[in-house]
């Protein structure tokens, strides 16, 4: 299939099922496994592998809303389209869509910080100005790849996803084999793993899977979208569960919980050392670099697409600040600037928390909107929608309680951020929802 340049790059049917799964797992595996394993272990203690399982279950319930909506109306609008159908155009739909876009930008900064942390490990550099500098470098690389068009992104996604999935699986199998299959030990002194902490850890596990939403954003470009969007999402989640569990057990059988928590920003590299020696350590660092870089690439593509859609749908104001080119290329620039800013000012733990708050709030708005307005139209089960909503709510409450105890400031940042988005959209669009008669389709 030949592509003309410019905005026609987003052609119907230009992404195969394999390519879509590559993109979905690409985004998921980038953040989840390298950035979050240690953070999850810190909250869930010896049960951190189970946290991934619960995260996958909650995510599968969540995915139901998106799959049902995408099957009914496969469009490149993805989440923005879902929200417009559920809430009719207005500030609620726009604010929720903007929260989604922002949570994706937040996870980009999480991933690039992780990239920097791993790449600097061999040089024993754990902090300092190099982390943010490198992080911003990766974002710029992703920007350049994305400017070169759809085919490049699709091809690179598949190649990198294969390297990544193969490499991480290899790491997991070898580390498990050398470490013996066992759950991580905790020394008697390390108590304090509470049920709340465990439930809160699921908030971060969900972040490790939320990449599936990028698939809904590529809706109409996937071949045979009515069937393949849903299939892509479920295949991607399944692949990720297997790999996360493999890694969780591999890390757990080589390190104690204290060691995992101590090395939480680079726990995979740490776990590779006892299992595979210095070579394994370097292998993991390179793997982390490839995984996170490709994750950012796919994610930058998805976010700029989404912001361009929101601009086209008149859900967010647009200023091109004197730049030439398409709206998509402008939103690419915004995405890059915003992700870079976050990567410079926040550490990994805080970026992950911020992402969890934004994402869970947006996700709940999606389920509620689908439940309230369109469930009969798309034949969705009320029970599954309400389960998805309740699971999100339980996890969000537990996570908020944990963070209020350990880092109340990040809860404040998140609350201010979310409130700002809603107030901004309310002022910009001057109403919460449009009158049904005008905006009803």
Q: Into which percent range does the helicity of residues fall?
A: over 70%
Quickly give the structural class.
mainly alpha
Helix/strand order: HHHHHHHHHHHHHHHH
Which shape, going by the Cα principal axes?
A: globular
Amino-to-carboxy terminus distance: 33 Å
Mean pLDDT: 79
CATH superfamily name?
A: Amino acid/polyamine transporter I
Whole-number total of structural domains: 1
Radius of gyration, whole Å:
21 Å
Q: Give start-end ranges of low-pLDDT stretches.
A: 1-9, 436-441
Largest sheet: none
CATH topology: Amino acid/polyamine transporter I
Helix count, DSSP H or I runs of 4 or more residues: 16
Beta-strand residue percentage: under 5%
Q: Got a strand count?
A: 0
The assigned CATH architecture is Up-down Bundle
Oligomer description: single chain
Annotation keywords:
single chain, globular, Amino acid/polyamine transporter I, disordered C terminus, mainly alpha, 16 helices, 441 residues
Please tell me about this protein's structure:
- The protein is globular.
- The longest helix is centred in the middle third of the chain and has 46 residues, at about 265-310.
- Helix 3 runs antiparallel to helix 4.
- The chain has helices at about 15-45, 50-70, 80-85, 90-120, 130-145, 150-180, 195-210, 210-215, 225-255, 255-260, 265-310, 325-345, 350-380, 380-405, 410-430, 435-440.
- It contains 16 helices and no strands.
- It is mainly alpha-helical and about 450 residues long.
């Amino acid at each position: 299939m030949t592509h003309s340049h410019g905005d026609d790059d987003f052609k119907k049917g230009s992404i195969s099922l394999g390519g879509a799964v590559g993109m979905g797992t690409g985004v998921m595996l980038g953040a989840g496994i390298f950035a979050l394993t240690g953070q999850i272990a810190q909250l869930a203690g010896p049960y951190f592998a189970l946290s991934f399982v619960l995260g996958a279950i909650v995510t599968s319930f969540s995915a139901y809303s998106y799959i049902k909506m995408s099957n009914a109306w496969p469009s490149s609008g993805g989440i923005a389209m879902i929200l417009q159908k559920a809430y009719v155009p207005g500030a609620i739909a726009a604010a929720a869509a903007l929260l989604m876009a922002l949570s994706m930008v937040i996870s980009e900064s999480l991933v690039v910080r992780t990239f920097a942390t791993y790449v600097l490990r061999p040089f024993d550099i754990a902090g300092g100005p190099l982390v943010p500098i490198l992080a911003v470098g990766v974002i710029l690389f992703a920007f350049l790849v994305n400017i070169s068009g759809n085919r490049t992104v699709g091809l690179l996604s598949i190649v990198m996803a294969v390297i990544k999935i193969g490499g991480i699986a290899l790491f997991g199998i070898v580390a498990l084999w050398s470490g013996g299959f066992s759950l991580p030990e905790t020394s008697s002194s390390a108590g304090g793993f509470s049920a709340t902490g465990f439930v809160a850890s699921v908030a971060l596990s969900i972040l490790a899977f939320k990449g599936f939403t990028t698939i809904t954003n590529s809706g109409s470009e996937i071949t045979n979208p009515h069937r393949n969007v849903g299939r892509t999402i479920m295949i991607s989640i399944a692949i990720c569960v297997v790999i996360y569990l493999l890694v969780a057990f591999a890390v757990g059988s080589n390190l104690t919980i204290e060691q995992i928590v101590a090395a939480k920003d680079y726990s995979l590299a740490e776990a590779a050392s006892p299992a595979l020696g210095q070579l394994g350590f370097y292998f993991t660092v390179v793997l982390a670099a490839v995984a996170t870089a490709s994750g950012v690439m796919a994610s930058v593509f998805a976010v700029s697409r989404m912001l361009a859609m929101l601009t086209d749908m008149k859900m967010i104001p647009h200023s091109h600040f004197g730049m030439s080119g398409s709206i998509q290329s402008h939103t690419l620039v915004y995405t890059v600037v915003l992700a870079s800013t976050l990567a410079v000012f926040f550490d990994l733990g805080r970026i992950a928390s911020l992402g969890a708050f934004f994402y869970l709030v947006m996700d709940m708005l999606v389920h509620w909107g689908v439940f309230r307005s369109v469930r009969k139209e798309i034949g969705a089960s009320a029970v599954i929608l309400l389960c998805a909503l309740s699971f999100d709510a339980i996890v969000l409450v537990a996570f908020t309680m944990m963070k209020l105890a350990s880092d109340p400031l990040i809860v404040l940042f998140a609350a201010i951020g979310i409130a700002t988005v809603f107030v901004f959209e309310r002022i910009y669009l001057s109403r919460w929802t449009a009158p049904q008669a005008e905006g009803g389709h």
